[in-house]
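anyone seen this seq b4? input:
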Amino acid sequence: MSAHPVSTQPASDLAPSTPYGDVRHPGYVVMLFFVCFAFSYLDRQVVSILVQPIKQSLALTDTQIGLLQGFSFTMCYATAGVFVARLVDRGNRVKLIAACVAIWAVSTMACGFASNFTELLLARAGTAVAEAALSPAALSIFSDIFVPRRVARASSMFMLGPYVGGGAALFGGGMLLTAAAAGQSNAWLSAHGFAPWQAVFVAVGLPGLLLAALVAFTVREPVRLEANASGEHTRDEMPSLREVLAELFVRNRFCLPYFAAYVALITLFYSHAAWFPTLLMRHFGLAPKLVGQMAAPAYMLGGMSGVACAGLLASRVSDDTTLRKVLGFSACAVALLVPAAIAMPLVGSSGLAIVLYGASAFTASIAMGLAPVPLQIAVPNRMRGRSLALLVFMTNAISGGIGPLSVGYLNERLGQTGTSLGWALALVGGISAFVSAILYAVAARRVGAATPN
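predicted toks r here
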């Protein structure tokens, strides 16, 4: 039996000129890439639940913890994204994804063998480099296997990954850490020179090898399609980087404020992901297992509900208003995020903090779920990979570095008192959300200068 049976999905959902028998299980492709994306966030965010044991085991400062969760990861992620972007636009995207999933799985497991800050820094960098290809490659593939009105739905499903993976990092990471630190497990690890937090890294990295094999052997690279002036889909030539930049920032005038708005939003996202679990442990004395059990459901439910809401909103717009309305929806959602982002780390109750954490995840995830849609519908096919990679580069080089590091730095400058971490999170998160909302509104006003492809 063929490994790629003919899809039963209605032909109207597929790209119109794609040979129907050539598109194999598009729903399965979306689901598999979503699982890969979720595991990428599990691997990168599990550090947040391991901060305290890592800090004690390796004698690290909060600034070093900020580097581990910020610049060491995001600068490598962003830089690698620039180099893989051209491969996304011209190479076999499926093979690229499979190779990168395998590499980040091995790198995550290597974190479990780190015995000092430098080794852990290098292993985290390896995870970051490998994860850089997944988002631009998967989102590019969706644009080739679905008609435009279905691209938003597939992308929204994919964008659930950070919330499912981040929630699994909190809940599963806490459970794994507790199990590894208990009784015979801890005794066995100690006898072999391992700390419980090291075992967690190995456990969460291992499934990535299976995912890499599934991508390599069950997904076929789709035909690249591009619409010409008459509406027909044809193979296109590879444009230069100068043409890509002109497309983004000259022809599509909304892109500059849109990119900046997303950078500000992801600054908040990375700050919360890196430090909120630590806030619960330090300020309220909660154990890692309990933090995972309490914070993970709020994070996952809030984020998944927000992404689902984003998909619903995007599916109800007309083709000629999609860009403007998607950016407008994002501006409104991020405006609602501002008060929650300020209040969440400052309240005196852990239960209320977790409710506000879920509310922050809900509003932020609406904008995050819609984030790739403007580039998917406004940018030509062989520019999408580099356009998405540029967005990824900016969010990770700036947001992922500044967010966690700023919180750690501000916490130390504020004297590391009982409330200093909360104030640091409130400052970084509140300012980031406010700036993002303003810039999204500016982008929506400029969208009249853009013409969807």
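Residues 381-413 form the longest helix (33 residues). DSSP finds 20 helices and two strands in the chain. kinda curious what u guys think
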